[in-house]
Amino acid sequence: MNWKIKVFDALTVQELYEILRLRSEVFVVEQNCVYQDLDNADQKALHLMGTDDEGNLLAYTRLFAPGIQYTEASIGRVVTSPKHGRGKGIGKELMERSIAAVEQHFGMVPIMIGAQQYLHRFYSSLGFKQVSDMYLEDGIPHIKMRREVD
């Protein structure tokens, strides 16, 4: 896996296309959820991308400094490719790299996520703790989870 992180204005047109294609493939088509993915927040995020040796986007998150999405720093749009990135531990590596990137760019700060509820155990294994009741976001059960500073 090849990993890189970029601010919005440094993304190439091809990288942006691949990011939006993967997010649409998973969050809209696979999860059968019609929602507005383009939310004017991408411009404020750092974009973490994991690609294979051929340049195919296999994993992606967007990272926010404290005060943008939540009071805390945050990680969002966590996605792995259904064709190439699942069942190989890429999701865990993606989140570990996302946490490390938050710490590198924003300091040792708490991190908040809005997690799909069925992924509670996965995020708990990475140090996140549930801090809200279940709520529906675009018809999908979610919970807020927070990772404290170690």
Explain what you see:
There is one protein chain. By secondary structure, the chain is α+β, with helices and mostly antiparallel strands. The chain has helices at residues 13-30, 90-106, 120-124; strands at 2-7, 46-51, 57-64, 73-80, 111-116, 128-130, 135-137, 140-147. Strands 1, 2, 3, 4, 5, 6, 7 and 8 form an 8-stranded mixed β-sheet that branches. A hairpin with a 5-residue loop joins strand 2 (46-51) and strand 3. The radius of gyration is 14 Å and the shape is globular.
Short description:
The protein has 150 residues and is of the alpha+beta class. The protein has helices at residues 13-30, 90-106, 120-124; strands at 2-7, 46-51, 57-64, 73-80, 111-116, 128-130, 135-137, 140-147. Strands 1, 2, 3, 4, 5, 6, 7 and 8 form an eight-stranded mixed beta sheet that branches.
Approximately what portion of the residues adopt beta-strand conformation? 25-35%
Helix-residue proportion: 25-40%
Rounded mean pLDDT score:
94
What class would the helix/strand composition place it in?
alpha+beta
Q: What is the number of beta strands?
A: 8
Q: Count of helices? A: 3
* Major sheet: 8 strands, mixed
Instruction: Note the overall shape.
Output: globular
Distance between the termini: 27 Å
User: Could you spell the SSE succession in H and E letters?
Assistant: EHEEEHEHEEE
Radius of gyration: 14 Å
Attribute tags:
alpha+beta, 27% helix, 150 residues
Strand-helix topology:
Elements: E1 2-7, H1 13-30, E2 46-51, E3 57-64, E4 73-80, H2 90-106, E5 111-116, H3 120-124, E6 128-130, E7 135-137, E8 140-147
Parallel strand pairs: 4-5
Antiparallel strand pairs: 1-2, 2-3, 3-4, 5-8, 6-8, 7-8
